[in-house]
Amino acid sequence: MKKFNLKNPIHLFATGFGSGLIQPAPGTWGSLAGVLIAILLWNLTASSLFFIGLSLIGFIAGCYICDKTSQDLNVHDDGRIVWDEIVAIFMMFAFLPEYNWLLYILTFICFRIFDILKPYPIRYFDEKLETGLGIMFDDILAAVYALLALHLIYWFI
User: Fold this and answer.
1) Distance (Å, rounded) from C-alpha 37 to C-alpha 52?
2) Could you tell me how far CA 78 lies from the centroid of its own chain?
3) Average pLDDT of span 91-118
4) Which helix (H) or strand (E) holds 140?
5) In a domain, 66, yes or no
6) What pLDDT digit, counting tens, does each position of 37-80 carry?
7) Is 2 part of a structural domain of the chain?
8) How far apart are CA 14 and CA 6, in angstroms?
9) Three-state DSSP class for 24?
10) What is the total count of domains within the chain?
11) Domain extent for 101
12) 114-138: string of b/e by CB count within 10 Å (b at 16+)?
């Protein structure tokens, strides 16, 4: 298995600034990095529109970043590529029902559950789309499921 070159900015972003290199469970560490960055950015901006824009830019760039890194490593969707988790968390922050530590923790937990379990159609797209779009898209779908779950939890609480 080829190594990441963190001097290469594409690999640096793909690994979530190195968080995806932490073992075990690099996707969990990348998601945690995403939540921490999102909390920091939310405290600076408090803007859902900012997170919508950041998510769109991150998704478009991520299609290239993830695809290029996969090609460099010669491995499709290497587990250490976590840019997709980070962007999915950013998208979730655009639509949270409330902004507090309980929701931040639930955001992390709900996203990880759906990203790991990959209910239909997430697993389908994860298996069928083989480009950077595929790497990014399944995590966006997991974020949508997680947001629905968060809103249901919030509604019941």
Assistant:
1) 15
2) 14
3) 97
4) helix 132-156
5) yes
6) 999 999 999 999 999 999 999 999 999 999 999 999 998 889 99
7) no
8) 9
9) coil
10) 1
11) 9-156
12) bbeebeeebeebbeebeebbbbbbb
